[in-house]
Write a structure and sequence with these properties.
Purple Acid Phosphatase, chain A, domain 2, 6-stranded mixed beta sheet, 6 helices, globular
């Protein structure tokens, strides 16, 4: 029996459509809820020996919304607290598009976070500059808006520098680092700040924003995140190490494919360059 070209194309189209629909359904109903704990050893240039082994908990891209409920955020918080990190940092995007309906629920879900050396956060491009930081501060989370704070850990200085999403110039970041005498950790929502950090010899940068690509396709990879120097995990440039978390939430479409959400526990170790 002869099979027409039209029939073949129709069968192919039907199969492809079914695969896309199936993947989308899996990404919506299943993978976006498959929260992982990423335990990562992070090399830091010039890290003093007493800070070796310091464990930093990292949650970013929360996106508390109708799709990422406060209950889901609470689950991520409990997973991180089970790891007992020494220090906790939050990477921004606590809500989506600045939706004020979720500002308070997001902050309340994050409120149980605590660590020996404190909980610090920065703002992402989805966060407003007033209500979100105020809600977090009400629960003891110190939000760094183009600011630096100094921690003393085991007799060593650790300077946390947190920048706004729109703070991009190396000169502006350098001004925040002025006077820093210890190991500098830059909290920058956008991984593209690796360029400025490397120029300033910042030892460590923690970022989010990419969601790890959120949808990672076979062969093509994370198409939506190709403009970033690091999409997920560890990257290096000169003496600077960057870690980019896949985050816990979603944006634009509530699906994840080949890119499960994560909370991260980073163990800092000295690295000679």
């Amino acid at each position: 029996m002869m099979i027409s070209r039209r029939a073949v194309l129709k069968t192919f189209a039907t199969t492809a459509t079914g695969a896309v629909v199936g993947a989308g359904s899996y990404g919506y109903f299943d993978e976006r809820h498959q929260l992982e704990v990423a335990r990562v050893i992070v090399p830091v240039a010039g890290l003093p020996a007493p800070l070796a082994g310091l464990r930093v908990g990292f949650i970013t891209d929360v996106h508390c919304s109708r799709w990422g409920t406060p209950e889901y955020v609470s689950r991520a918080v409990h997973r991180l607290m089970d790891e007992r990190p020494d220090l906790i940092v939050l990477g921004g995007d606590y809500v989506t598009w600045g939706d004020r309906r979720f500002v308070k629920p997001s902050a309340e879900a994050l409120a149980p976070l605590s660590a020996q050396y404190g909980v610090y956060g920065i703002l992402g491009n989805h966060d407003d500059d007033r209500y979100m930081p105020a809600a977090l501060a009400a629960h003891g989370i110190d939000v760094l808006k183009d600011a630096r704070t100094r921690l003393t850990i085991k007799g060593e200085i650790l300077d946390l520098v947190g920048i706004r999403f729109w703070t991009r110039r190396a000169a502006d970041i350098a001004s925040l680092m002025r006077g820093a005498t210890g190991t500098v950790v830059l909290l920058a929502h956008d991984p593209r700040r690796l360029t400025e950090a490397a120029a300033l010899n910042v030892p460590l940068v923690l970022s989010g924003h990419t969601h790890g690509g959120q949808v990672v396709l076979p062969l093509a990879g994370a198409v939506a995140a190709q403009k970033f120097p690091v999409v997920a995990g560890i990257g290096r440039r000169n003496r600077t190490t960057m870690f980019v978390s896949r985050g816990i939430g979603t944006v634009y479409v509530p699906i994840r494919i080949n890119c499960p959400p994560e909370v991260a526990v980073l163990t800092l170790q000295p690295h000679s360059v």
